[in-house]
Amino acid sequence: MEPLLRIEDLQVNFHTTQGVAQAVCGVNYHIDPGEVLGVVGESGSGKSVTALAVLGLVPHPGRIAGGRIRYRERDLLNLPAKELRKVRGDRISMIFQEPMISLNPAFTIENQLTEALRTHRSISKQEARNRAVEMLAMVDIPDPAKRIRDYPHHLSGGMRQRVMIAEALLLDPDVLLADEPTTALDVTVQASVLDLMRRLNERIGTAIMLITHNLGVVAESAKRVVVMYCGRVVEQGAVGEIFGNAAHPYTRGLLKSIPRPGGSELYEMKGIVPSILELPQGCPFHPRCPQAMPRCVREQPPWRELAAEHHALCWLYE
Amino acid sequence: MFLKRLLKNKIGLIGVIVIGLNIAVALAAPLLATHDPLTINLEAQAVPPSAQHWFGTDEYGRDIYSRVIYGSRISLYICLLSVVLATVGGVATGAAAGYFGGLVDNVIMRCMDALMSFPAILLAIAILAALGPNLYNVIIALGVVYVPRFARIVRSSVLSLKEKEFVEASRAMGNGNIYIIFRHILPNCTAPLIVQATASLAYAILAESSLGFLGLGAPPPAPSWGNILSDARNFMMENPMMTVFPGVAITLAVLGFNLLGDALRDVLDPRLK
Amino acid sequence: MLKYILKRIIYLIPTIGMVAVMVFLLIHMIPGDPALVMLGNDATPQDVEALRDALGLNQPLYQQFFLWVGRVLTGDFGVSIHSKVPVLTSIADRFPVTLSLTTLALVFSLIVSIPSGVLAAVKHNTKSDYMFMLGTILGVSVPGFWLGLLCLLVFSVQLGWFPSTGFVAIWENFWEGLRYLLLPAVTLGLFMAAVVARMVRSSMLEVLRLEYVTHARAKGLSEWKVINKHALKNAFAPALTTIGIQYGMLLGGAVITETVFSLPGLGKYLVVAINMRDYPVVQGCILFIALVYVLINLVVDLLYGFFDPRIEYK
Predict the structure, then answer these.
(1) Torsion C162-C163-C169-C173 (CA) sign
(2) Domain tally for chain A?
(3) Residue C56 domain-assigned?
C-alpha cells in the first residue's frame, strides 16, 4: 500500500538571536490511509513542528531547511501557496493542544465551523450550517442547533475540543493532525475525547496523526508509534513491538514513566531535555542514557532495522 | 545596568541626545543667542532670514532665532515643573486611594474620573480661563490635567501590593502607613511611573505650545514657542519662515521625549512592546 | 442590552455630577470679583452689582450650585454677557461645525491608521515596519496646529488649492464644504492617526502570535481573511479604547485647529469668549464638550462588546 503522507529527511531550523537551532533534524516517517499513527516525545522534540511543517505553518523564526513532504504524489513543501491552501483544512486538517485559545473568541461556533466548508466547497450558508450541526451531533455535543450560535467562551474545554474535531473532520479529510488534543483537558474528559477520535477514525476513515507526550494515550489508539527526541526519530514500530519490545533506551525510559495502577514507584529519567541550541555531540540522548558508551559521545548513531517495521536510532544494535 | 541597556537601545540613545541638546541650549541660551529676545527693533520689522537675523525678525523686530533659543527655557521649565507636580499629586492621591480604600478611594477616584472626562487640553484651557494666563498658572493647569494618569498607576499597583506578605509583615512589625507606602509600595511602581512621566513630558510640551498659541500660556512678550507661533501667524504672508523655526524646535523637543519614552517602555516593561 | 445601557448611564451620574461641580466652580476660581473681571475696570459699581445679581453671586455657594444645575438641566446654559444671546443657542449654531471637523478627522485617522498598523504588524521587523514606526513617532511629535499653519501657508496661500478664508458648511454643500474642512481635519487627525496606528500594530502583533490565527491558517483560509477577519477583529478591541480616548484629543484639538483655520465652530467661540472674559459662554462650552466626550466614551464601551463577545451585557 502506498503511504498517504510521507515525510522524508525533514530539516527545520530556528533562526534565533543566539544562533541557528535544529528543531527538526532529518525526520522520516509516513502515515498510511486510515491508520492512527502515534507520535510521541517530550516538548521540544520537534513533533509539533513536524506537523506544522506538513501544512507549511512552521512558526517564526523557524524555516524549513531541507527534505520533502509527499502527499499523494505532491510535494507539499514546493506547492504554490494557493495550492497548499487547498490542501489545508480540506485534505489535511489539524487540531491543537489548547482548545481554550485555538478557537477565535470573537466569532460564533457557526461562523468558525462553516468558514472552512465555505472556503473549500461552493455550498450555501444554510447547507453549511446543516452540515455543521450534523457534525456537532456526531462529536456528541448536546443540542447542537442551539450550541452552534454560542461563542467559544460559553463552552467548556472538552466541548471546545469536540468543536475543533468537528470542524477538522467536516470536509472528510484524508489526514487529521492532532497535536496533543487531550493534554489540556481534564482526565475524565481526555478518555471520552480519545474514544471519540477512535470512533470517528473507524467511521469516517480519516487517518489520524496523534501527537502526544504520553505513551499511555498512544497505547490504546495507535497502530504504529514514532518516538521522537531532540528533533530526531529515535524509534519507530508497531504499537505491540514498542510496548512489548522497546529497543531505544529513551523509549524504555518513557515506558517506565507511565503510571500504572498498583505499580511500584514511578521511574524518573535522569537529566532534562537539552536545549536545541546546545545539542550534545554524538547521540543527543547520551547524557541521559543509562547504557551510554564512549562511542555514543563521539558519533551519531545509525538507523537500524531490528525487526519487520521496527527501527531504532541507537549504537546498541550495531 | 539599566542605564547601560537604555543607552544600548539606539532609539533611547537618540532620545537622550536630543533631550540633552535641548537642555544644553536652554542652559547656554545667553551664549547662543545673538540678540536679546525681548529687545524691540523698529528698524527691522518682520525681515526674512539674513546673516544678521538668522531666522528673521517678528513684527516688533525681535530676533526670532534668539527667541526660539530662549523659548527652550520656558518650555522645559513649564513641562518639567508641571510633570513633577502631576507626579507628586498623582502619587499622593493614588497611594491614598489604593491604600485606604473605601470612601477615600471612591471620592478620589470619582474626582479623577471627572478630570479625565474633559479632553486634556480643554481642561487646561478651562483652568487658565479662570486663573488667568501666567507662567505658574500654566504649570498648575498642566499639572492638574496629568494627575489622574499617575494616580491610576499608583492606585492599581498599591492595590496589588498591599495584600502581599512583605507588606503584611512590615505592618505586623508596627510600621506606619506612610512608612510602608514609601518603603515597600512606591519602589515597586517606579517603572510605569517613569514611562508615564516621560510620555507626559512630551504631551506637556505640545500642550504648552498650544496654550501659548491660543494666548493662554506665559504672557507676551515672553519668548515661549507657542507665543512666537502666535505672533508669526499674523505675519505668515510676509515672513513664512517665521512659522517654520519655532515649530521645528517644538517637534524636536517632543520627539526627544517620545523616543526616550519608547525606549524606556521597551527596557523597563518588555511586556508592553 | 437596553438594561445594560441604562445601567451604564446610571454609573455615569456621579462622574457627570463631579464634572458639573468642576465647571461650576470655574467662575469661583477667578481671582478677585468675577463680575468685575468680566466687565473690566471701566464698569460702574452699579453694573457690577447688577451682574453679580444676574449671576446669583450674592447667594451662598451651595444654593448657587443647585440653581445652576437646575437651569442647566432645563437647557438654560445662561446668557452671553456680551451678545446677550443664550449660550445654548450659540452652541447649537456652532457645534455642527466642530462635530463635522472632528468626525472628518476621525474618519481620516482611522482610514490611515488601521491599514498601516495592520500592514506594519504583518511586515514586522522589515524596512516597512521601521518606516512605519518612524512615521508614527513623528506623527505624535509634530504639533498639529503648527502643521496646520504650514499647510495653510503652502496649500491655501501659495498654491491656492484650498480656500484660506470664509466657510461653507459641509451639510449644505458637501464637496465645497469638504474643501474648507480637509486641511483642518487632516492636521487635527494626524496625531490620533499615529497613536491609533501604533496601538493597532502592537495589538495585531500580539494577536498574530496566538493559536487561533494558526488554526485559521490551518483551515486553508486566505492570508487576507486570516488577518482581516480573524486577527483584526480581536486586535481592534484594545484599539477601540484608544480611539475613544483620542476622540477627546480631537475635541480638545479642535479648539486650536478652529483658531488656526478660522472655522466658526465651538472651539473658536470658546477662545473668543475667554479673551472677552465672557464666563457664562466659557462655562457652557466646556460643560457641553465634556458631556459630548463622556457620551462618546459610553458609545465606545458599548461597541467594545461587539469586538470582544466575552464582555457580557449584564
Answers:
(1) negative
(2) 2
(3) no
